[in-house]
Amino acid sequence: NTLLKDFISNIKSMKITKAMVLCAGFGKRLHPLTLYNSKPLLKIGDNTLLSNTLNFLKQFGIKQIIINVHHLGNHIINYINKNKFNTAITTIHEKDDILDTGGGILNALAHFSNEPFIAINPDTIWNPNYLEELKVMEKNFFTNKKSKCFLLVVNKNKSFDQSIKGDFNLENNLINREDKENLKYIYTGVQILTPNVFDHVDLRVFSINKIWDKLIQNSDLFGTESNISFLHVSTLSIYKSILKKYFKY
């Protein structure tokens, strides 16, 4: 009984405190806006996509944030330096080559000290309702002994952009891609992962999909389903439609 109580106490005290925000993309589908302004700095109401994400992470209790940048990277670095986010933020400038999603995270692993961390995309419009879902995902991550990577996914029917195709299927919290013609779930843009998922990776530039596919092969990629309407700034027309419907401009 004492051991069980200690185990439960340890689980309750487990908390993700570090996160990475992926900001190195080109945002080509939002041209011409992103020719001169980095996509994470596009406005949504009184915030930018980036500030909305940083505030969301702060609300969740994240203490340390890593941001990778490439296209117009100095714009983001200057933005971070000028604004007071009251959080420890480190920027990594991928000056020579864009490393893609997997390579960008791998390049930042030294900042996570072998601890699990959140990786998040700023082009999803995160709102306070996601906090509870992220807490559920965090709990699932720590209580599942096999956890190396946990994704928050949503049924594509809940997506504002109905042109987005499914990425996965989800069965009993386990993610698969078996029925490729009928993938029902979209990656929302937030995941919890451990640095050891990158063990034995000898690539420098690669998509995080390579990691996911390897985990799927071993039945090691887990997911939590979101029930929130999915607002993702995917294209210029979708961005304008979201602004008109939800932010009244």
What does this structure look like?
- By secondary structure, the protein is an alpha/beta fold.
- The protein is built from eight helices and eleven strands.
- The strands form three sheets. The protein has a seven-stranded mixed beta sheet, sandwiched between helices. A two-stranded antiparallel sheet has the order 2-3. The protein has a two-stranded antiparallel ribbon with strand order 8-9.
- A hairpin with a 2-residue loop joins strand 2 and strand 3 (47-48).
- The longest helix has 15 residues, at 129-143.
- It starts with a helix and ends with a helix.
- 39% of the residues are buried.
Q: What is the residue-averaged pLDDT?
A: 93
Outline type: globular
| Oligomerization status of the protein chains | single chain
Number of helices: 8
Helix content: 25-40%
Largest sheet: 7 strands, mixed
Main sheet: strand order:
5-4-1-6-10-7-11
The structure class reads alpha/beta
Distance between the ends: 59 Å
- Per DSSP E runs of 2 or more residues, the count of β-strands stands at 11
Q: Which sequence of SSEs, written as H and E, runs from N to C?
A: HEHEEHEHEHEHEEEEHEH
% residues in beta strands = 15-25%
Radius of gyration: 18 Å
Low-confidence spans: pLDDT under 50, at least 5 residues? 5-12
